[in-house]
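job 3f2a | input accepted
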Amino acid sequence: MRNGFDAEFEITNIIDDIRHYFATNGSKDTKAIIGISGGKDSTIAAALLVCALGNDRVIGVLMPDGDQKDIADARAVCEYLHIKNYTINIKYTTASFIEDIERNTDLLPNGAVHTNMPARVRMTTLYNVAAMIGGRVINTGNKSEAFVGYTTKYGDLAGDYAVLRDYYVTEIYKIGEALKLPEHLVRKEPSDGMSGKTDAMNMGFSYEVLDDYLSNGVVPSADVLKNILDRHARNRHKEVIRLPHPECRSRPFLSGTARQKYANDEDCAFCF
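job 3f2a | predicted structure (272 res):
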């Protein structure tokens, strides 16, 4: 987390930016379509959308891939925020893609296919719902995951507008706390929802260590630093699809001296 990070100040700017985006990219009836997993990112992003637009303009879409152990958390988010929601199980759609490949080629889907296919099916589902309702698809990615490539190209890396794209995970926790959201949802251990492992177990380091390095220059141990930089280098190809950030009009992620420093720059300091 960046030194001097002020969650309440950032919330005000995020809400202003959401309102500006929807005012210039739709009508007063345009809905925000967001996938709800029950994790911190979708929970906090949905809450910010409700603050900005009202709960009648936010539509949650729950997309389990077969059985989802924590589906109750996703439902709890929708109930807490009083947003309309749909549950669309993607199990058979995902399976049919894989079956079509196997039936029509001599290719055998590997681990990468099984890992990334659900994320891409979910994004396709969100866009179909948006087309039927008249809405914009919300991306819930964050700055920490983007740096190390803990994302799926054309999956969770896609969307029309990314509410949290300028914030590190540790800052998102603070935003959730400032919004007074249920602690068990805000502080829920991040996981990929597939392997049964936490993000920290999969990556080999915690978001606290990653964020401290990225935001404050605190260098971790040599092996962890190598892991972070290797992950960043391996995933540079994903930068062709950046987290959607329509404009840097208000630079909501910058506060205090940082905002002043980049006030006259043409390029967004945090768009990488």
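job 3f2a | The domain at 7-260 is CATH 3.40.50.620 (Rossmann fold).
job 3f2a | closed
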